[in-house]
Amino acid sequence: MIQNSELILNPDGSVYHLNLLPEHIANDIIFVGDQNRVEKITQFFDSIEYSTQKREFKTQTGIYKGKRISVMSTGIGPDNIDIVVNELDALVNIDLKTRQPKENLTSLNIIRIGTSGSLQADIPVDSFVMSKFGLGLDNMLRSYLIDEVSNAAIEDAFINHTNWDIRKGRPYAIACSEKLEKIIESDKMFKGITATAGGFYGPQGRVLRLNIQDEELNSKMDNFNFNDERITNLEMETAAIYGLSALLGHNALSLNAIIANRASGTFSEDPYKAVDELIAYTLNKLAQK
Predict the structure, then answer these.
(1) Residue 4's pLDDT band (boundaries 50, 70, 90)?
(2) What is the pTM of this model?
(3) Contact status, residue 136 vs residue 240, Cβ threshold 8 Å
(4) Cα dihedral sign for 169, 170, 173, 174?
(5) Which of 131, 233, 271, 274 could form a disulfide with 254 if both were Cys (CB 3.0 to 4.6 A apart)?
(6) What span, in angstroms and rounded, lies between the C-alpha atoms of 283 and 42?
(7) What gap in Å lies between CA 283 and CA 123, rounded to an integer?
């Protein structure tokens, strides 16, 4: 039996942070970072059956073209992803009354929809990026046993290319779900490696008043290439989502609307349109699944 201190439940039996019971979520789940983006997606739903929020974790479940879908805000960073994915898995794969793992496990389909800046000149603003791999620079996933799901070849190549300081922890590389990749992909999608940082400033090469360990890291990342897979963008969630999902038996895919291009210094003239187009595209693909 999983102890009370390990799987914490609210007085109503819901999981502690997400404030959800098993019946509140669908098997198809869309992640967004910002709680205010949840309704930017569910505004397209035919109906909403359930809505709740605790802290930055907001969830709405409803119907879109006959398909039951949940939309959830995760907040920022790999530490939040650790909470969200583990508690979602508990909802479907642990009997919350007996506190025992279920014999028959459920695989969720998790798709992240985000915005990002491109690191490559040929990936223009208003385009879509699908993360073929998540490259975790945050070290969160190293708390788990990940050798069976991680790609050591990509990790080694990145460490050698960037002269990575191993005191920051070994980066980890995790592939997306092939199942979801086939469902969502289109000719408009760019594919590549999405790097996941553990912070917004120093971990992403931003300098305010503090010097950083490697001032050249971003430029090294720009020209990293592994079997024709480049690092397309840099954010704070994808690798953690991929890693925990792979370990727990869920399908995960991360999509980003590119609203800025760092290489060319350009920014989308209408970033909201790009995001809305990615939302509509993803919802329609899920409804057809």
Answers:
(1) very high
(2) 0.96
(3) yes
(4) negative
(5) 131
(6) 10
(7) 23
